[in-house]
Amino acid sequence: MFRLLPVQILLAAVGAVNGIVSSYFASNYVGISAMSAVGLYFPLSLLLSAISTMLSGGSAILCGKYMGRNEQDRVRNVFSLNLLLAAAVGGIIFILFLVLGLADLTGFLTGDETVRPLFNVYLIGQAIGVLPFLAGNQLPVYLSMENRQNLTMQASLVYIGINVLLNCLFVQILHLEAFGLALSSSLGLWMFFGIQASFFLGGKANIRLQLKHLSLEDGRAILRTGFPGAASNGYQAARGIIVNSLLNAFVGSAGVSAFAAANNLLGIFWGVPVGMLAVSRLMISLSMGEEDRQTLTAVMRNMLIRFVPVMCGISAVIILCAEPFTRLFYQDPSESVYMMTVWGFRLLPLCMPLSIVCMHFICYGQAAGRRLLVHILALLDGVVCVAGFSALLIRFLGIISVYVANILNGIVCILVIIAYSWIQRKRPPRSVEELMALPDDFGVEADARIDISVRSMDEVLTVSRQVTDFCRRRGLDERRSYISGLCLEEMAGNIVEHGFTSDRRPHMIDIRVVHKNDDLVLRIRDDCRPFNPKERNDLTDPADMIRNIGIRLVYKTARDVEYQSVLGLNVLTIRI
Predict the structure, then answer these.
(1) Which uninterrupted H or E stretch holds 192?
(2) Which fold, 446-575?
(3) What 3-state class would DSSP assign to 454?
C-alpha cells in the first residue's frame, strides 16, 4: 500500500494544482475579483470531481471484484464502458459550460456585476478541459493494475509544468486575465490525458478497449456502485454554493476570496487522504472479491494506525505554516482578507485526519453493499453538517464558523460510524473488525485457511509439509493433499529460483490455502517481475520431459489455473 501511495497522492493533488496556480496568478496578477471568480468555480469543480469519482470509484470496485474472481473479460468490459461514459458526460458538460458562460447565465452563482464577467470567461476556459479531466482521471486505476503507475507520475508532473508555464504566458505576459487562468489548466489537462492514454493505444496493455459485446449491466453497475461514494462530492458541490452564499451575505467578497485561497492551497494536502483512499479502495475491493476477511480488516486497521497518524503530522505542519502560506496570496496583514485566510490554514487542517476515517468507511460500505450507511455518511459529510453548522454560527463567528463547521462535521461522522456498528452488533465495538460490523459468514474461519510467507529456498522446502498437514486436518483425501503441497512447493521454488534473482531487491511470496464448501483454492502472490506461468507451459517442448517440470505438473493436475498481474503483484490462483 505504501509503495503505491506516492503516485495516488500525486494524482489526487493534480486536481488541486489547477486551483493553487489559478489562485496565485489571480491574486497577484489580476486582482481580488478574479480570485472570487476562482472561488465561485470551486463548487463546479467539486461537481466534476463527483462525476469522476463515481465513474472511477465504481469501476475500481467492480474491477477489483472481477479480478478476485479471475474474470478478465469483465475487467476489459468495465474499462471500455468507463471511458465511454466519461467521454459522453464530458461532452455534455462542455456544451453546458459554454452556454452558461457565453449567454451570461451564471447569475445563480453570483450577483456581483464586477465578478460575474470574469467568472463567465473563466468558465468558458475551464470547459475546454472538462473532457480530458474526466477521462484522464479514469486511467490511473487501470495503470495501477498494469503496474504502470510511473506513467501517471510523468503525466502529473508534465501537467503541473505546463500549467505554470502557460499561466506565465497567458496571464503575466499576454494579460488574458481570467480566461488565461482557465485555458492554461485546460491545455495542461489534455497533455495529462494524452500521456496516460498512449500506453493503452500502444497495444502493450492487458486491459484494453473491448467495444464488442459490451454489457450494459456492467455500465449500470458502475454508476450504481460508484454513486454513493461520489454523492459526497456532489453534496459538497451543493455545500460550496450554500457556503459561498452565506459568506457573501454575512462576510462579503473578502470572505469568499479568503475561503477560496485556503481551500485551493489545502487541496494539494487533501491529495494525501484522497491518495490513501485510492490505494485502499483497490485492496478493499480485491478482498471483497476473494472474501478475504483478514486482508480486508488489515486494510482498515492500517488506515487507523498508520494513515491517520501520518495525516495528523501533516496537519500540524500546515497549522505552523499558516502565515507563510497566506502570504502566497495576500501580503498586507492589515487587510481583513489576510487574517481570514490565516485562520483557514489554522483550523481547516484539523478535519483532515477525521475525514480519512469517514472516506474509508464510505468506500468499505460501497464494496460491502451497505448503502444506508454510505448515503447517511455522504449526506452528513457532504452538505448537512458543514452547511448546517455554518448557518447556525456565522452570525456570531463570521468566517470562523465555516472552518469550525468542517471540524464538527468530521466528529459527527465518526460518531455515526460507531453508532451504526453498535446497532448492527448490539454492543459497542471493541475492535476494528467489530467497528466494520463484518458478517460472521464472510470469508472462512481461521482453521479453514493457512497463510505461509516465503523469503528463501530454505522456507520453500517446508511448504509442502505445511500444506499437506493442513489438508489432512481438514479431512481432504490423500490425493488432493499430496498434489496441493507438491504444486505449491514447485511454484514457490520456481519463483525463488528465477524471480528472486532477477534483480537486487528483496522479495517475498505470500501463499494462502483456503478450504470452503469442499473447494480447495491455492493462491500465490509475489512481488517479482511479471511472469505468467501459462506462457512458459505453452512454450514447453513436449519431447523435453524435464524442462519446466514443476509448471507442467501444476497445469496437468489442477482443475483450474488463473494468472493475473494486480497492483504490481503476480497473482496465481490454483483450484485442486
Answers:
(1) helix 177-201
(2) Heat Shock Protein 90 (3.30.565)
(3) strand
Q: Tens of pLDDT along 371-400?
A: 888 888 888 887 899 999 999 999 999 999
**In degrees rounded to 5, what are phi and psi of residue 212?**
-90, 145
Alpha helices, H only, 329-473: 336-347, 352-368, 371-379, 385-397, 400-425, 432-436, 457-460, 463-473
> Distance between CA 225 and CA 222 in Å, rounded?
5
Average pLDDT over residues 400-417: 95
Task: Please give the Cα distance from 127 to 98 (Å, whole number).
Answer: 6
Residues in the chain: 576
pLDDT for 404 equals 96
CA distance 506 to 488: 21
**Cα dist. 562→49, 286, 473, 565 in Å?**
36, 15, 26, 11
Which three cell numbers mark 395?
A: 452570525
- Predicted TM-score of the model (pTM): 0.68
Give, for 45, the enclosing helix (H) or strand (E): helix 32-68
Instruction: Note the pLDDT of residue 538.
Output: 47
- Amino acid at the residue 314: I
Torsion sign (Cα): 496, 285, 287, 310:
positive
Residue closest to 322 by CA, chosen among 301, 308, 299, 342: 342
Domain spans of the chain, in order of start: 5-433, 446-575
